[in-house]
Amino acid sequence: MASVDSTGSRVSGRLGSGDLLHAGLVVVLLLGVWCVSGLEVSTGKVPSAEAMNGSTVLIPCTYSSCIGIKNLYFNWHFNNNGSMVKLYEGEIAHEGAEPKVMMCHDRVTFVGSSKTNNISLLLWNITFDDAGDYTCFARNLKEKNRNHSAIFTLIVVDEIRELDNTLTVIVVSVLGGVIGLLVMGMVIKALVVHFLLKGGEKNKECLVSSSGNDNTENGLSGAKADNKGTPKA
Ligand SMILES: *[C@@H]1O[C@H](CO)[C@@H](O)[C@H](O)[C@H]1NC(C)=O
Ligand SMILES: *[C@@H]1O[C@H](CO)[C@@H](O)[C@H](O)[C@H]1NC(C)=O
Ligand SMILES: *[C@@H]1O[C@H](CO)[C@@H](O)[C@H](O)[C@H]1NC(C)=O
Ligand SMILES: *[C@@H]1O[C@H](CO)[C@@H](O)[C@H](O)[C@H]1NC(C)=O
Ligand SMILES: *[C@@H]1O[C@H](CO)[C@@H](O)[C@H](O)[C@H]1NC(C)=O
Questions:
Q1: Which of the 8 DSSP states describes residue 141?
Q2: How confident is the model at residue 209 (pLDDT cuts 50, 70, 90)?
Q3: What are the transmembrane regions (predicted)?
Q4: Closest-CA residue to 232 (of 213, 217, 204, 211)
Q5: Which one of the ligands is nearest to 42 CA?
Q6: Percent helix, strand and coil across the chain, each rounded to 5?
Q7: Where are the domains of the chain?
Q8: Residue, of 35 and 220, whose pLDDT is higher
Q9: What is the pTM of this model?
Q10: Measured distance CA(60)–CA(210) in Å, rounded
Q11: In angstroms, what is the span from residue 105 Cα to ligand 5's centroid?
């Protein structure tokens, strides 16, 4: 009992949300042992996620209660730089009942199901302004409306940097391939040209030497004489 008193005084002293959460956790744990009351909300084992701007993200939250639920009220808040913006509000009358939506936000879709104790949201087309803490809150009439909440942190990452990396890899590999092919082509071309030229040069050398040395002989040697003859005339 002493520990409960100390947490109680700490809460009233500081009113910190972390301490409140702690106290809530202690209460839930203490009561959970005897299963007197048992509503718990959870945003997952790792209550945070990274997502690219422009994408659509799942903000998870589940609840569980060993004593069952009655008029389970829940809502979602986004901590927008200190001021809480309500994103969703609903109520589940009893286990398995479809939630009665009381309020929602334009970029938010409820994707949970009371059959799986799931009160998750889908947040569409996120921007960098959507980064931050999302609080899933629930209150069960069956346990005298005790408050429960869990926080999920969304980290919005720059799409461009990630895309840049993949683009760089693609560009580098494609360029590498293209350059490789070009080099191979150039080598082949150089070899072909080299051998062709070698042959050609031999012919030319023959022509030049023959024409240079002896015009009359060249003139007598048929078709090639015409080529040599025109520039001269
Ligand atoms: C993501 O953010 C970058 C930088 O602000 C912006 O240029 C880009 O258009 C954004 N992408 C989407 C899909 O909104
Ligand atoms: C957040 O709040 C602080 C103080 O109230 C203010 O200086 C700052 O500009 C705000 N940031 C945004 C992104 O609104
Ligand atoms: C998200 O963005 C797409 C494309 O810009 C748009 O068609 C869609 O309606 C948006 N969805 C919401 C819920 O705003
Ligand atoms: C909650 O429902 C959504 C949508 O069906 C699903 O993606 C998510 O995995 C569910 N979460 C849990 C913890 O079951
Ligand atoms: C539960 O939360 C509401 C606000 O949502 C607050 O007014 C009320 O005092 C809280 N109750 C307890 C027992 O903390």
A1: G
A2: very low
A3: 20-39, 169-197
A4: 211
A5: 4
A6: 45, 30, 20
A7: 40-157, 162-198
A8: 35
A9: 0.60
A10: 91
A11: 22
